[in-house]
Amino acid sequence: MSSPLPRRLLIGAALGCVVVGMLFIIGLRVVRPAVQTAALERQISGIDHGACNAAPDSWGWASGDISYFAYDRTGRSLNPNAPRIEQRLLRRALAEEKVAVETSSNRILFVVPHAPDGPCAVLRVTSKNPEAAVSSRFLGVLAGAIVIGMILAVLGTFLAVVRPLRSRIEEVATAAQSVGSESFAPQPSSSDALGHIAEVLAQSHDRILESRSALEQRNQALERHLAGIAHDLRTPLSSMHLALESLATESQGSVRKEAQRALADAVYLSSMVENLHQATRLRHEVDVTSGSVELADLVHRLEKRFAIVGRHAGVEVAANTPEREVWVACTPALAERAVANLVQNAVEHNDGPGHVAITLSLVESGSRFQLVVADDGPGLPQDTLATLQNESFLEDEARPRGPGMGTLITKEVARRAGWSVSYAALEPKGLEVRIEGPVADLD
Question: Are 32 and 134 in contact (CB under 8 A)?
């Protein structure tokens, strides 16, 4: 549920501004007549009536919009400078025996019954109309009141709502970023929306920890299971290799072809089991550089292994290595998988008769190595080569014996070991895979 505090505060500030303006208008309307009457009374109280009766022909005064003169009840003044009195106001004032007032845009005219008779029986008083000045002052004061009210409302909203709300949002955002980690700190819950979010984050954190623990246990069990399978299958598969190789060598005709096909399947099965095992280890972010391996020896061992499979498929496998040892920082089992997958793909996808060459060389004054696996098979289309260069390459399900998992493992091992992997088409046909990386300093 959302907090009503910001909305209430803004509504209250707006109502406050409206109330201030209304009070100012009401006060102006109420006070203005009283002010005018008080001013008139002050002016009248200051008139010297004895002087008026003593010299009515000269009594009176005028300056701009302000003046006062005396008249008899017929409206005649003995002062020649006195303006003509307004008869309608005179009749109304005498009939009601009270002040008659007429207001224009720039002045206010008062006709005041003052005495029963005589030359000073009626007074005509004019004063400057404060309406225009008051209106301008009113608008200025009203605008100032509205501005001050808005400033106070904004300031109050910022201090009472925005700043605490921003602080809470930042705290919840920080907590959200650390959900599922050891640095997560649960936020205090409350009845508003942010409190509900904090409560949900805390619950999600607990569920993530529980799920992570269960997942780690399942992954460890799966890894042990696959490792056990790989270990249990290694011996029978090796026996199958020897038996099928002997059968393929000694048999003739269709039996020999079936034995050669079965030998290739056994090699593929052994490689798939080992790839599954190593893929499980890689998913656990195993340290690929935790060991070291000598590449020249590894290349010659792979040459002997795949030369047997290649011989029965009509594919010659040959290797060339430098005379000195080439050590690299990589777990031996993972390094063997990375290179063996490339050689196996080159042999299996070569139509035969053909050739597969494994070349290991040192470059950059012996500080780096290059391992190239090249074949003269049918190669790969350009779009497939572009896909292989992409780090997000996934197994092509339509090609059951394509690069698939083996290629993915090779690229992942190379990435973690700090090696580069590149693919290039050969002319007139064939494929070249190049692995390059630093040589380990064992001193």
Answer: yes
SS3 233: helix
d(CA 419, CA 417): 6
Q: Which helix (H) or strand (E) holds 148?
A: helix 131-157
Average pLDDT of the chain?
Answer: 79
Which H helix or E strand runs over 66? strand 66-71
How far the first Cα of the chain sits from its last, in Å, is: 66
Render pLDDT for 375-392 as a digit per residue (tens, 0 to 9): 998 888 887 777 776 654
On whether the CB atoms of residues 99 and 44 are closer than 8 A, the answer is no
How distant is the alpha carbon of residue 41 from its chain centre? 72
**What CA–CA distance (Å, rounded) separates 250 from 261?**
15
In which band, very low, low, confident or very high, does the pLDDT at 394 lie, cut at 50, 70 and 90?
very low
CB 377 within 8 A of CB 430: yes
What torsion, rounded to 10 degrees, do the Cα atoms 215, 221, 226, 229 define? -160
Residue 360, strand partner residues: 371
Cα–Cα distance, 101 to 86 (Å, whole number): 11
Cα 348 from Cα 345, distance rounded (Å): 5
Burial classification of residue 424, based on how many CB atoms lie within 10 Å of its CB (0-12 exposed, 13-18 middle, 19 or more buried): middle
Compute the distance between CA of residue 7 and CA of residue 161 in angstroms, rounded to an integer. 10
CA dihedral 147, 152, 155, 160 (to 10 degrees): -150
Which of 224, 268, 302 has the alpha carbon at shortest distance from 406? 268
Query: Is 114 in contact with 52 (CB distance < 8 Å)?
Result: no
pLDDT at 278: 81
Helical pair 295-313 and 193-250, crossing angle rounded to 10 deg = 60
Provide DSSP, 284-304. TT--GGGSEEEHHHHHHHHHH
Cα(375)–Cα(372) distance, integer angstroms:
10
Average pLDDT over residues 10-16: 58
Interatomic CA distance for residues 3 and 192, integer angstroms:
5
| Tokens found for residue 232 | 């249990």
DSSP class of 180: T
- Read off the DSSP letter of residue 159: I
For residue 370, the cross-strand partners are 361, 436
Rg (CA), the chain: 53
CA 361, 365, 369, 372 torsion-angle sign? negative
What angle is formed at CA 359 by the lines to CA 355 and CA 363, rounded to 5 degrees?
155
Beta carbons within 8 Å of 15's beta carbon, 6+ residues apart: none
